[in-house]
Amino acid sequence: MALKDRLEKDRANGDRVGGTTVAHWRRRLLEEVDLDELATLTMAQRRARLEKVTGLLVTGEGPVLAPAERNSLVRRVVDEALGLGVLEPLLADPDITEIMVNGPDAIFIERAGRLTRLDGGFASEEQLYQTIDRIVAQVNRRVDESSPMVDARLPTGERVNVIIPPLSLSGPILTIRRFPRAYTVQELVGMGSMDASTGMLLASLVRARVNIVISGGTGSGKTTMLNALSAFVPEHERIVTIEDSAELQLKQEHVVPLESRPPNIEGKGAITIRDLVRNALRMRPDRIIVGEVRGGETLDMLQAMNTGHDGSLVTVHANSTEDTVHRLRTLASMSDVKLPFEAIRDQIHSAIDVIVQLSRGPDGSRRITDIAALVPARDGDARLQSVMRFEAEPLAPDRSVRGRFRPYALPPVLLDRLFHTGEGPPPAYGAAPAHQAVRPPT
């Protein structure tokens, strides 16, 4: 049974416009329309039809309203009947990157990296449950006391997380992460996420089939950067993308997108990222792009990078380039194939060429703060060598982050790779002097 069928009816003093509840007009709308006919229309046609019928009902039966108030009432009634209620205008705003609903009375949004609480909310807890139920029903999932957590995805690509009582102590919690727009490297340069020379370097590394790990914290822009760098993969290559929730928007012609599948209502039928990575190796890929590794699939990804699938791209949660190496070791050790620590270390050192670290500043800005190359050392180990670092200035009074991108000379191993593939580094990233220091062992 759906959650909305187990909860109380709308509050008598619910969300009112002109003295009449939105729920009242929604019921009147459903009484007037032919649902069978509505099912034959496209979503745009349904919305147009419902707006027309609602407008006629409000004009004929409702109170006298100003044009702006009348239009707002019609839109809200149709949003309730067809869409996601009060969330619809938020989802229509391209500047909003995250929507966080902490119970029916508290809605927060993230815009330009800053959190803001909105006035108003859902008319009742039941209305919020109805919205949640509508979202999860689209992906054949359910939320109830026996299964109080769920991850889902809207048809337009937004990622949704739901958690309800008894796990949540403040009512049903709904988090919607917006589908990231596909930015180009040139746009990211204009936004201050990197400088032009770094953009040229990353483009050359992708074309030279260098294995790149993009690391950073939650919301630091890893998927956005991954999407931007993937644009430099040549058109003639076969690309297999593997994600939990399909977010990448590659423009190449020969792209095979794969998406993992959570277990069904009975807890069966799950397809993991690891299953997809293993299957991708049988699909003759030129490049494998993994949205994020977070478990045993890390070892499979490292082995793929070491067996002829050069130029692979992957993201991972980590706080620094050094932390990225340690985290990859930990994740690879979670595989059911138990390897010695030294074997996992060697896999990482031979598979990973470059680590790109992203960070999110106090002002909400997202930028590359570190690029490091894994270079071989005389003792047979490997070291991290800086390629670029963002040197931040003291935080300004307005809490804006300023600084400069400082390039370092590329290590010979990367210069040779670029030279043999016909790619030249930007002038700022010239040959590395013999005395250039490397970081301590990882």
TrEMBL record:
It holds the Pfam family T2SSE. It comes from the Bacteria. Residues 208-345 form the AAA+ ATPase domain. InterPro entries: AAA+_ATPase, P-loop_NTPase, T2SS/T4SS_dom, T4SS_GSP_E_ATPase. Gene3D superfamilies: 3.30.450.380, P-loop containing nucleotide triphosphate hydrolases (3.40.50.300). Belongs to the GSP E family. This is CpaF family protein. It comes from Actinomadura parmotrematis. The lineage of its organism: Bacteria, Bacillati, Actinomycetota, Actinomycetes, Streptosporangiales.
